[in-house]
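Q: Predict the bound structure with magnesium ion.
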Amino acid sequence: MTRKCLGCGAFFQSDNPLKAGFVDVKNKDNALVCKRCFKIKNYGEYTPIDNDVRYYENIFNKIKEKKDLVLFLCDIFTLDETLNYINNFKSKVILVITKKDLLPKSVKEYKLINYIKQNYNLNVIDIIFISSNKNYNIDLLMNKIMNNKTSNKVYLVGNTNAGKSTLINAFIKSYGSSSSFITTSSLPATTLDTIEINLTEDLSLIDTPGIISNDNYITGLKLSDVKKIMPKKEIKPRTYQMKPNQSLLIEDYARIDYLSSTNNSFTLYLSNDIKINRINLNTNNNLRNLKLNSFNLDKRKDIVINGLLFCKITNNAKLNVYTKNSVKVFERNNLI
Ligand SMILES: Nc1nc2c(ncn2[C@@H]2O[C@H](COP(=O)(O)OP(=O)(O)OP(=O)(O)O)[C@@H](O)[C@H]2O)c(=O)[nH]1
Ligand SMILES: [Mg+2]
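A: Predicted complex:
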C-alpha cells in the first residue's frame, strides 16, 4: 500500500492505529484520508503521533539541499525560535510572516519588517506578511512566487503551527481546481510527511511537517491548554501599572515578579483567553515552584516566554520570571 493520506501526507497502513496513516482494512483501497485526519476534520479530535525529532530533521535536511524556491513561514510569536534555520538553505528563500490578523491593528507592518531586517541577519530575498484566514496578501505572495520560482516546485517550511497547510489551502481556494484540502489544526505536528499539491500546470506546492521545538510552551501540552494559549483573534495588549512588590500571575502558566523600587508599566501580548492577575509579591507564593529566570531588563528590551507571551516595560526593571521547565525565556529588542 503506497498511497498517501491527502490530509497529512502519511503513507496509509492498516497495522497500527497509533502510527501515522492508519486506515481500517475495509477502507484501505478507497480511503482519501487517514483515520486521524478524518477525526481532526470532522470531530476536532486529535491523536498525537510520536515521531522522533530526527524524522522531521531528515525531511528538513533534504529540502535544504534543493534549488527550488522556499517559502519559510513563521508567526510573529515564534520569530526568534525559527529564524536561525533560514540561512541554512541553498535556494532562494522568501520569509512569510503568517497570521497578520492576530496582530493589534495599531502595529505597523513596515516597522516590523525593518525590525526583522535590523535584528536578524537573514539571507532572504523578500519578507511579506500574510493572513490566510483573512486572505490578506495571498495574491501578492503568489506574484512573488511566480516571479522568483526557479522550477515548478516551491517548498513551504517552518515551525509547526506556522500555518503552512492553511496557506496552501488558501492558494487551492484562489488558484486551484481541487476540492481536497490539507488537514490543519492548532495542535503541533498536524502534517506528518511531505504533500505535493499540483496547484496549476506550472506550479506545485510542497507542504512539509513543521519543525518542533522543545523550548516552545505549547510543545507537550494538552489540547485544552494549546487551544487557550494559541491566539485566535486580534490580540488586545493588556497594560498593568506595576508598583514595587507586585507580581503578575498568568493563570497556571507563568509568574512575573517585579523587584524594582519604582513604579512601572507592563504591556503583555498573549492570547485574549488567558487570565492575568496582579498579586502581592510577598504574600502570594503561587507558581514559585516553577523554573526561575532572573532579569535586569533594560526598557528597550522585551521579555519573551517562548510560545506564551511577550512583555514590554516602560522603565528598566528587575524581574523574576517563573515558568515551565523546558520553555525558553529570554530578552530581545522591543518588537513593538
Ligand atoms: N488567526 C489565524 N490563524 C491561522 C492562520 N493561518 C493558520 N492559522 C491557524 O494556525 C493553526 C496551525 O495551522 P496549520 O496550517 O495546521 O499549521 P502548519 O504550519 O501546517 O502546522 P504543522 O502541520 O503542524 O507543521 C491552525 O489552528 C490554523 O487555523 C491565519 O492566517 N490567521
Ligand atoms: Mg501542516
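A: The longest helix spans residues 53-64.
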